[in-house]
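#struct-pred
JK: can someone run the complex with cytidine-5'-triphosphate? inputs below
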Amino acid sequence: MSDRRVLLIVGGGIAAYKCLELVRLLRGRGIAVRPVLTEAGSKFVTPLSLAALCEDRVHTDLFSLTDEAEMGHIQLSRSADLIVVAPATADLMARAAAGLANDLATTLLLATDTPVLMVPAMNVRMWNHPATQRNLATLRADGVRFVGPEVGDMACGETGPGRMAEPAAICAAVLEALSPARGPLAGRRAIVTAGPTAEPIDPVRVLTNRSSGKQGFAIAGALAALGAEVVLVAGPVSEPTPAGVRRVDVETAREMLAACEAALPADIAVCVAAVADWRPAEVSTGKTKKVAGAAPPEIQLVENPDILATLSRRADRPALVVGFAAETETVEAHAQAKLERKGCDWIVANDVSRPGVMGGTANTVSIVSATGIERWEEAPKTEVAARLAARIAAALDGDPA
Ligand code: CTP
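RT: done, structure tokens with the ligand placed:
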């Protein structure tokens, strides 16, 4: 761990004193710690104690001319292998979840692409409040990891969840977060699209496809389980975010494409989403009213961008681009044609005419590539996902489908 660096953001809570012990433990493991102290944090620990223990200067002010000259805040946000926020107060969590950048700490959290570990500490009612729980869910969906809080007595005299984790537990979580991901896809980046898109007709009506998102979410989770860094671009579905996956929620095909392009470069793209092929040419700003006896409104459609084809044809395309084909007849012939039309490497052909596939938990698929067709037995969607992730890992290691 001797070359590892942590950026430690110390928030304003009584538990901040535990950070001094945390710094000692991390430094004992050879991990360099660069401290950032929020204004509220400085009421609980002094910059001098932190600087002395970290043997580094403490960054406190977003508008410090000296700091910006030596190391801009953007660079500071990326100068570490891990950002640890301890204590992560209810306020800090709320601002980070909302994407605010109104002090150095939140600016760093917004500007970084480094993994973030938060260590919440707050009063039990603040922790249990729906607002904090909403923020927790948002941050988790953004890929933030958490350690604690623990249940116990608190400085305010109440008991329950909210106590900051002990320094030894935080240190263990830091070590785990810093260990290089294991698995055959460690170091690989993947983009997965999942769910339907919803194309607005007017403020209350949408044009959409049937899709539960189950298969795409399972694939995102399976790729992450093999060590890949996964961005899951999801249309409107109610599936929980798989562990270790960064989720970007979108509504329309155009938003889905923009989110995928923003997630490049990647080694793998798996387009599972049931993208609406067309969208209404015009979206009315007011609700279209039904007039009794009058002819129904006519909706003019225009074609949506094809995300799979766009990703496949970009100069910086992922090394392996996989599409899905939901077909009801001559499944494999259609898949072959789709492979060429879209320019992707594999098509996972899926016979949706079989009962129970749409919205169900099992799938029967064939993998169609330039070199042939692999037919898989019917299996639960999670198993299809695990098998596909393993197949992808093998292909990137030189074993073509
Ligand atoms: N796809 C996409 N963007 C679109 C349409 C489809 O990325 N605008 C992707 C899907 O995610 C899937 C694959 O293309 O991986 C095939 O989708 P499908 O709906 O079966 O194909 P279509 O192109 O719509 O062709 P058709 O309707 O003729 O079957």
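RT: quick notes.
The chain has a mean pLDDT of 91.
The chain is about 35% helix and 25% strand.
JK: thanks, will look after standup
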